[in-house]
Design goal:
Blueprint: E1 5-9, H1 16-27, E2 30-33, H2 34-47, H3 55-63, E3 67-72, E4 75-80, E5 83-84, H4 92-101, H5 105-119, E6 124-128, H6 131-135, E7 141-146, H7 149-162, H8 169-185, E8 198-201, H9 207-222, H10 228-245, E9 248-250, H11 252-257, E10 261-265, H12 271-280, E11 285-289, H13 290-295, H14 297-303, E12 308-311, H15 320-329, E13 333-336, H16 354-361, E14 366-373, E15 393-396, E16 400-401, H17 411-435
Parallel strand pairs: 1-6, 1-7, 2-6, 7-8, 9-15, 10-13, 10-14, 11-12, 11-13
Antiparallel strand pairs: 3-4, 4-5, 14-15, 14-16
Helix pairs in contact: 1-9, 2-4, 2-5, 3-5, 7-8, 10-12
Length: about 450
């Protein structure tokens, strides 16, 4: 599977869509609502006044049909044969019709093919009835949610009344009972609990409580345990820098809280990556230039012990952003030196746009700027060996919040964000020069 996918299956009104949306927002991925696919077909048929629900008709009708999904931020619009069906999807008549036609093989194949095709375009959290069992059997994490019929009916009644739909508890209860029966008793791909799904009965929990539980499970599946060897290297590096350079970190509390996410730093010396390893720990993953790593034997040896995401100077590798987001969701700090090379005079060079592309593609909400001070005079580019017994001071800033990614795809917005990131590092440099440099 090229991209990662999380599935949530369960009966109607078990809280799947609310939770999927929350988790999608938190992980910065898209939400795929498979029920809306069935509803789109049903809505089109209802709007066009087509009553037929038999397999022969649906099979030939769907052969030339097209379903299109257009994301506007996190909101999705649905088009069926160019008719926008989004406004009709939540009607109860449409839900009932969806449940009826969902029994037909051709309808299920049509929806499943569309779901699988879309899932190849990115990372998704998808909800439905048969996603973990049939559509995405190799999903990275699977959940199965349920709740008692009464509590689901109460939730659905409240939801419908909030939307201004005139209904009653008894009516909703009966509709849900009917849909449960149709969904779990149909012959093809009925609602089932996949063996490898994490089961949650949401009856007596709030949405936030269930969301936390699911999030713990997602983190568990994605988290990596670094090898003992890597852990020892980090311990060794810490002792080495403390002994020979009076290694000092200001603002360490920010890096301790920022356990996984994008970290960026200035780059003047070969020591920089080792210093960041000391600070961020053995799970650290670096974004590195393939060209630099390939041509420098020493760098190749050292980096072979640590995971790298290699980037080509000319083209972004196909899976680059997926690897970045996966790394972050695995609970690893992802480090980039946005200048793209070591500075020859110790000043901060202009940033390449790569860092901004990562932020925008991966929809990151914050990044952590770090300034490494004093290293340039110890081991600048071109010097064969480092000097010892000088001071290294690292300044960790408060994480920088990124807002408005959705609008930030234009060139102007990218340049603005890149400058903003560099400005934050320049401020740290200024602070370092005024406060620490003169004492070194
Ligand atoms: O989840 P939602 O209520 O929007 O789904 C509408 C209907 O579509 C369900 O009642 C169910 O019959 C059908 N469905 C399905 N398989 C899915 C998702 C929905 O059969 N994966």
């Amino acid at each position: 599977m090229a991209h990662f996918i999380i599935t949530i299956d369960g009966p109607s009104a078990s809280g799947k869509s609310t939770l999927a949306k929350k988790i999608a927002q938190r992980l910065g991925i898209n939400y795929l609502d498979s029920g809306a696919f069935y509803r789109s077909i049903a809505a089109f048929l209802v709007e066009k006044g087509v009553a037929s629900e038999d397999e022969t008709f649906l099979s030939s009708f769907l052969q030339s049909a097209k379903l299109k999904l257009v994301y506007e931020g996190s909101f999705a619009r649905y088009y069926f044969n160019d008719l926008e069906v989004t406004p009709f999807l939540r009607k109860e008549l449409v839900a009932m019709k969806a449940s009826f036609i969902a029994k037909q093989k051709s309808v299920r194949n049509f929806v499943n093919n569309n779901l699988q095709e879309i899932s190849n375009k990115g990372d998704f959290i998808a909800d439905g009835r048969d996603l973990g069992s049939k559509v995405f059997p190799l999903a990275d994490v699977k959940f199965f949610l349920t709740a008692t019929l009464e509590s689901r009916a109460k939730r659905r009644e409240l939801e419908q009344k909030t939307m201004g739909i005139d209904t009653s508890f008894e009516k909703v209860l009966e509709q849900l009972r009917l849909r449960d029966e149709q969904d779990s008793k149909r012959k093809i791909d009925p609602l089932v609990r996949p063996d490898d799904a994490f089961f949650i009965d949401t009856t007596s929990y709030t949405t936030d409580e269930v969301c936390e539980e699911m999030f713990i499970e997602i983190k568990k599946k994605f988290s990596v345990q670094p090898s003992l060897f890597r852990t020892w290297i980090c311990v060794f590096l810490k002792s080495f820098f403390s002994l020979f350079y009076g290694f000092k970190v200001m603002g360490e509390e920010f890096s301790r809280k920022f356990l996984s996410g994008l970290v960026y730093a200035n780059h003047t010396s070969f020591y920089d990556a080792l210093i960041l390893l000391t600070l961020l720990g053995p799970k650290t993953v670096f974004v590195a230039s393939e060209r630099v790593v390939r041509k420098n034997f020493f760098i190749r040896i050292v980096t072979s012990f640590f995971p790298l995401i290699l980037v080509d100077d000319q083209n972004m590798p196909k899976d680059f952003f997926r690897l970045c987001i996966k790394t972050i969701h695995k609970g690893c700090p992802l480090v980039i030196f946005p200048e793209g090379m070591r500075s020859l005079d110790g000043t901060i060079l202009p940033f390449k746009v790569g860092i901004t592309s990562i932020i925008l593609h991966c929809k990151l909400k914050e990044v952590l700027p770090i300034y490494i001070g004093g290293v340039y005079s110890i081991w600048p580019k071109g010097k064969w060996f480092p000097s010892f017994f000088k001071k290294i001071t690292v300044l960790v800033s408060k994480p920088l919040h990124i807002s408005g990614h959705e609008k930030g795809e234009g060139k102007e917005a990218r340049v603005k964000l890149t400058n903003q990131l560099r400005e934050r590092l320049k401020n740290l440099e200024k602070h370092f020069k005024e406060t620490y440099e003169c004492r070194i």
